[in-house]
Design goal:
The chain is mostly helical and 521 residues long. 47% of the residues lie in helices and 5% in strands.
Length: 521
């Protein structure tokens, strides 16, 4: 077969992902914090972008000179306005005017602002050079108190132990070994290290490391430096003087305790039911994670993107949260000033400013489109889940991304990006938009289907209300759900129960009976 080269003219369509289009998609899925960081970076790079000043007015309107994309022109005040301003050389500022006004109104204005302008005495003059906000500090750059300088530092588990080591171990080699062992502690206070490897690396005998570890296990908090849960509980019981042979048998069989197999534990510990209940009460007082009080996780506040309020007519009003809506302005006056100065449009300055103007207009349009998309998706979610807002989680309807996307004429991927890490403030609390999407569970009576979240809530409520004498099995829960119109298989009930960390009926019955006896005693 002969090969030959031919020319063909073909017309086709393809989607081109420009950098601006990709950034628009990224803006849609950004959280409030990520969006503010991105806008701050753009404002630093683009001289035409400005952040609107936050004057405390949440519902403030955009200035009259702002365009439809949120841009505003910075116009200079006319010279006539300066001339029209009231002069300071009026009779209100003449000498003796304050005294005459005080006599007329029977008010002493001299003491109204007694602290204004008065010199503040430094608390520690010798520390003025070290502290940037000492009371009474004067001079250039002083802005008053800085509360961050007076906040007490948080002590970590490592610092807390390092303060106790010199009192427990006096020799320098032992203190060095203690520092190495402290570095191998996890957040819960457990020792995660191979003592043989440390012995070979430091050249210290394993017996000396074991002896030092035994001493370190006496430090506070009780149970620190344990290598397992049983050792952690043993250390705490020994410090409480509650570690006896019966308690040792209980600690050695924690797997049976997790299964609530109290009958076998009574035989192993050689105790009666009353003593076993006392031992269980003692175990409950122990801390399985002694290092947890020193965990300082950063608490991040969540700013809702959508606020839902009743409209007074039996419906709901969906609004964007003004606090989560950044206001970006485009300075057209600066662009015009640069254009008047440049003689030619082909100068590098003009090319740079034109690019900045294009990026600024794109950003304002993208932010406007982002706000409209979030509002449209949230409004459809509220329309679909209005029964949940009226009556609670029992009336949460099954919902998927395709239903919302078809209703608002958007793609499912767009709805997915909008609902990721976006939050809605409702009269029933703060919820992530993803919370309102759950799978559908068929109805036993052929009616409307139920959402998986509402079914889990019903299972949790049924188990919470059960008594020690009438603990519900998975089959009993299936029957009660079916009587309530929910058709659910037994294995699905077991799966939902395990996902909520709820033990089986046998374990719950043993635990509830033991707890009832403990409370009765």
């Amino acid at each position: 077969m002969a090969l030959s080269a031919n020319l063909f003219l073909r017309q086709s369509q393809s989607l081109v992902m420009t950098p601006q289009l990709m950034q628009s998609i990224q803006l849609l899925q950004m959280t409030h914090l990520e969006l503010m960081q991105f806008i701050s970076q753009e404002v630093e790079r683009n001289p035409l972008l400005e952040m609107a000043a936050d004057d405390g007015d949440l519902g403030g309107e955009i200035p009259d000179n702002a365009d439809r994309h949120g841009s505003a022109s910075q116009q200079e005040a006319p010279a006539d306005d300066m001339a029209a301003a009231p002069s300071l050389d009026s009779d209100w500022y003449e000498h003796g005017a304050t005294e005459r006004l005080s006599d007329r109104l029977d008010t002493n204005y001299d003491t109204a602002f007694a602290d204004e302008g008065s010199a503040q005495r430094p608390d520690a003059p010798e520390l003025l050079g070290q502290w940037k906000s000492m009371p009474g500090q004067s001079g250039e750059g002083s802005e008053g108190f800085d509360l961050d300088d007076f906040v007490a530092g948080q002590i970590s588990l490592r610092d807390h132990l390092n303060q106790q080591v010199p009192f427990a171990l006096t020799s320098p080699p032992d203190q060095l070994l203690a520092a190495v062992l402290i570095d191998h502690l996890d957040e819960a206070g457990y020792l995660r290290a191979d003592l043989a490897e440390i012995s070979a690396r430091l050249g210290i005998s394993l017996a000396d490391i074991e002896a030092a570890l035994k001493t370190l296990q006496t430090l506070e908090p009780a149970g620190v430096f344990a290598r397992s849960l049983s050792e952690c509980l043993t250390i705490q019981l020994q410090q409480r003087d509650r570690y006896d042979p019966a308690m040792a048998g209980l600690i050695d069989n924690l797997d049976l305790l997790a299964k609530r197999d109290f009958a076998t534990l009574k035989k192993i510990c050689a105790v009666d039911e009353e003593d076993l209940i006392d031992m269980l009460a003692e175990i409950r007082k122990l801390n399985p994670k002694p290092g947890s009080p020193f965990e300082h996780s950063i608490s991040e506040s969540v700013t809702p993107d959508i606020v839902v309020r009743p409209d007074g007519q039996g419906g709901w009003r969906v609004e964007l949260n003004p606090d989560a809506l950044p206001r970006v302005l485009v300075n057209h006056s600066y662009m015009a000033a640069v254009g008047r100065r440049g003689a030619s449009k082909d100068t590098p300055d003009q090319a740079f400013m034109s690019e900045c103007m294009q990026n600024a207009n794109w950003l304002t349009r993208s932010l406007d489109q982002r706000a409209r998309t979030i509002t449209k998706v949230a409004a459809e979610i509220v329309r679909q889940q209005s029964a949940f807002l009226d009556h609670g989680v029992d009336h949460l309807r099954p919902l998927n991304l395709k239903t919302v996307a078809d209703a608002i004429k958007m793609h499912e991927s767009t709805v997915s990006r909008v609902t990721t890490n976006k939050y809605m403030m409702t009269p029933r609390g703060l919820f992530e938009l993803k919370y309102f999407f759950s799978v559908s569970i068929a109805s036993a009576e052929g009616g409307d289907s139920h959402s998986a979240e509402s079914v889990r809530h019903r299972i949790r409520a049924l188990i919470t209300q059960e008594s020690p004498e009438a603990v519900l099995s998975d089959d009993d829960i299936v029957d009660q759900l079916k009587s309530g119109g929910v058709d659910l298989a037994r294995r699905t009930v077991a799966k939902y129960r395990e996902s909520m960390n709820i033990p089986s009926s046998v374990q719950r019955r043993r635990e509830k009976r033991a707890m009832a006896k403990i409370s009765a005693g």
